[in-house]
Amino acid sequence: xxRILAIETSCDETAVAIIxxxxxxxxxxxxxxxxIHARFGGVVPEIASRQHLLTLNPLIRKALDGCQLDWPxxxxxxxxxxxxxxxxxxxxxxxxxxxxxxxxxxxxxxxxMAGHIYANMLEGPVKFPLVxxxxxxxxxxxxxxxxxxxxxxxxxxxxDAAGEAFxxxxxxxxxxxxxxxxxxKLAYQGNPVLGFPRTMLEEGSLDFSxxxxxxxxxxxxxxxxxxxxxxxxxxxxxxxxxxxxDVLVKKTAMAIDRTKPASLLMAGGVAANSHxxxxxxxxxxxxxxxxxxPPPALCTDNAAMIGAAAWPLYTVGREAQFSLNAxxxxxxx
Length: 333
Hints:
11 helices; globular
């Protein structure tokens, strides 16, 4: 069974994984930079790139040693080409190209968003056609797949992605970084009693917009402070989160009605949000569809998902050339 060593450095997680047969995780190593960036309230691209340089090579060796393999046991390499931070991506792409050239191994370039979707395949095969809600810090998209590695974008964010809105509101409320998990926990202590807007855009649109919701939350807090009214942070978290989840679930329901898929998937860092997972589970049950969501550890950035997405490329021999370059704005194929 072919083994692929995959590298992921699109943002602030240095990750290396070894995947056998596209589904079996032999090793999955992630070096987080959260503590480094926390003091800035967000990712600093230059610092992220430098940290990847320091971390990647030792992490590759750790991945190999962790499953008692060495380079002769690896059949191919895979790497995230984009989208992401260009400096961070370049560290992974340059390393993967150098290894592939030196070891005479085939190299496969993976779209980061395809990786998030294919994290679901690590749990076993899924039924096509499918609809996948991809929600992360930089992306909110509804993707339709008629078959393996064929992507049609049904809708996408026109401004802030859902994860970006979570982080910005958390920072505005003075919560720790990263803000998404903190808001998720805080929401359980409050009640969704504040009527924040649900932006649906024009009738029938499957696109998303969260900047208006973000502004509404900020205006509410500013007004309370100007009038010396108490600010219940837990109620704000619960109300904001419910507004985001309502829109995500309703738009997904619209996509299901329009495409009639055989299964429903969710992917991306925000897919770890417990309220969203519950809402999507209820939606899938109501529509009579199987729902696949990766475990939380595979929702955030990791290299196992890159190895899973590289597998169908490996099976058809769609190798990358050594002219491969990082592509920070790479679209799904």
